[in-house]
Every structure is written in structure tokens, then in C-alpha cells.
Design a protein that fits this description.
mainly alpha; three-stranded antiparallel β-sheet
Length: about 130
């Protein structure tokens, strides 16, 4: 069985967000057919690669009982970036302080930024 390291690399190359079809993910895992139980394998492997995805229903075998090769999902790197934190807050509200994350990032509250993001903002100001 393969893994989704190529998809992870592609996602990294596209700034941490990539649209990919189920057929591509199935092939990368080394599976011949796309059945509803392969969806769970895809979801598990994305987690192993420290990636998230949406819409969640597409990889849920109880909801997507007849998956198709052409169905697409968006995958993103769960790297604590602004994008990842916003997506995670929206997709997993019970695990995150949604209001603080969204209000802080939308309102320019620097306390909502990671240290890396704060340094990047300082660099942008200095270079301007």
C-alpha cells in the first residue's frame, strides 16, 4: 500500500491548499478500485501526512456510499498557519476557540497570530 506523500508535496508546492480528485488519491494509495471503505483509508492517510480536508462528507463512507473518481476534495496542510487555523476552527469548532481565532484574524488582532506570522508582518513593514 502506498501513502499520500506526493499529495502532501503537491499541497506544499501550492502554498498549503490543493484541490484533488478521489481517483488520484486512490491511485496514490495503490488501490485498484474506489469503494466506500477506501474513503476511510484516504482520510486516515491524510491525517498521517498532517493534512486536513473538506468537504468532510466526501470521505465519509456513511454519507458517500457510492464514491466516484471525479469527486474532489480540498486538502490543506495543518501547519498552524493562518489558513489552517481558520479552516480547522470552522470544520472542528468543538476543538478550537472559533470566536477568538476568527475575530482576531479578521480584526487584525496581533495576539491571534503565531510568532512566525508576527515576524513576517514585521519584515513586511521593514521592507516597505
Amino acid at each position: 500500500m502506498g501513502d499520500l506523500s506526493f499529495t502532501r508535496d503537491e499541497c506544499d508546492a501550492h502554498d498549503g491548499l490543493l484541490r484533488v480528485d478521489l481517483g488520484t488519491l486512490r491511485k496514490e494509495l495503490g488501490r485498484d478500485r474506489l469503494g466506500k471503505w477506501i474513503l476511510g483509508e484516504i482520510a486516515d492517510e491524510l491525517k498521517q501526512q498532517q493534512m486536513g480536508y473538506f468537504p468532510a462528507d466526501t470521505l465519509d463512507p456513511n454519507r458517500n456510499t457510492e464514491p466516484r473518481q471525479h469527486q474532489t476534495i480540498w486538502v490543506y496542510v495543518r501547519d498552524n498557519s493562518t489558513r489552517a487555523r481558520v479552516i480547522d476552527a470552522i470544520l472542528h469548532p468543538r476543538e478550537h476557540d472559533v470566536q477568538t481565532i476568527l475575530d482576531g484574524l479578521a480584526g487584525g488582532d496581533l495576539s491571534a497570530l503565531t510568532s512566525e506570522e508576527k515576524l513576517k508582518r514585521i519584515q513586511e513593514i521593514v521592507e516597505a
